[in-house]
Amino acid sequence: MYELVVEAEFSAAHRLREYRGACEKLHGHNYRVELVVASGKLDSLGMVADFRELKRLVQGAAERYDHGYLNDLAEFRKQNPTAENVARVLFEECSRRMPRGVRAQSVTVWESPRCGARYSAPAKESSSPRRTRRA
User: Fold this and answer.
1) Active-site residue, selected from the candidate residues 23, 75, 84, 92
2) What is the CA radius of gyration of the chain?
3) pLDDT tens-digit map of 33-56
């Protein structure tokens, strides 16, 4: 399996409803978004996908958040715009835009250089039932 990694950035404000602490107040972050894509095959040029195309894809998904108030967006009116939820929403958006033969593996949203949340592709369910042993 081959994996490619591309990044984008955006700045946005948000507040966490019903949170007790500083994050309940309006504040902002300079977010960094990391998209990981995967494919088991290379094209005739020996590439999974063109990095330029993937960078445009992730930047296009993130640009609607740039210099905005995340709580005002439809996807965050009922759920908090946490890093976890932003990562999932961006993952879903990027997944819809993937080039043929390439799948989104994960999206990580960094709120700061040391704090981020990753959303990964859900594991495919096995068609055969799992057997478990009890101890």
Assistant:
1) 23
2) 17
3) 999 999 999 999 999 999 999 999
Look up the pTM and report it.
Answer: 0.88
Gap between the Cα atoms of 28 and 31, Å rounded: 9
* pLDDT exceeds cutoff 80 at 115: yes
111 part of the active site: yes
In the set 27, 53, 67, 115, the catalytic residue is 67
Give burial (CB, 10 Å; 0-12/13-18/19+) of 90: buried
Domain that holds residue 32: 2-120
The CATH number covering residue 104 comes to 3.30.479.10
- Concerning whether 18 is annotated as a catalytic residue, the answer is no
Q: How many domains does the chain have?
A: 1
Does 79 map to a domain? yes
> Whole-angstrom distance between the N-terminal and C-terminal Cα of the chain?
36
How far is Cα 37 from Cα 32, in angstroms, rounded to an integer? 16
What are 26's two structure tokens? 């309006």
Q: What is the C-alpha to C-alpha distance for residues 76 and 17, in angstroms, rounded to an integer? A: 11
Active-site residue, 94 included = no
Rounded to 10°, the helix 51-63/83-96 angle is 130
